[in-house]
Amino acid sequence: MNRPNLWSEGREILFEDNHLLVINKPAGLLVQGDATGDEPLSKKAAEYLRFKYKKPGEAFVGVAHRIDRPVSGVVVLAKTSKALSRLNEMFRDNLMSKTYWALTGKPPVPESGTLIHWLVKDTVRNVTKAYPTAHGQGLRSELKYELLGPAGNRFLLQVNPVTGRPHQIRTQLATGLGTPIVGDVKYGFIAPLPDVSIALHARQLQLQHPVTKEQMTFVAPLPDAPHWDAAREFHR
Fold this sequence. Notes:
InterPro entries: PsdUridine_synth_cat_dom_sf, PsdUridine_synth_RluA-like_CS, PsdUridine_synth_RsuA/RluA, RluA_PseudoU_synthase. By secondary structure, the chain is α+β, with helices and mostly antiparallel strands. Helix content is 14%, strand content 33%. Strands 1, 2, 3, 4, 5, 6, 7, 8, 9, 10 and 11 form an 11-stranded mixed beta sheet that branches. The relative contact order is 0.18. Mean pLDDT is 92; it is low at 1-5.
């Protein structure tokens, strides 16, 4: 039981109490297990809790929401079934405020606005297509965006999704604005990043604590990656 912590507080661990464990997820890490068999965030979190609290068995970790594997940033995990049940309801009903930062190769036109599309997920190819008008199989998807400013030779956008759909931000920025996210070759960016991440970061999450009802705001520091360096001066 002398294994060192898997994460450090203040960098990867943004908050922890009896009910919640809030992680700044590194890009490249799955949130929940899939067919690849790669160890996901949920398993790493369970291992962290088991060693930290010297638990004889498996620690409970519940996943209420996910962000894509190549995306970094805030993920809230539940340490109790009560917290998980209430978090599931909150995410299902969009009872929280999510803020993402994205780097693009060119500025959006217009510089701020709202995008509405109907998204259809191709589960075989793992890609999502956006339609500008109602589509039979599509889910209505909405986000708000604004250009924060130039960041080196890139442009930093702040994105607030109103709905939560698979690949929503990636698809809508590429389709609706013609500004695919840096490194996101799946949705039209010209080249991958060296670490195979994409320049999309779940920057902030605001929600009501599922048990104490306290209003909480979690802010995730940007990854230690060169493509984010020019964006560090923005602290909204």
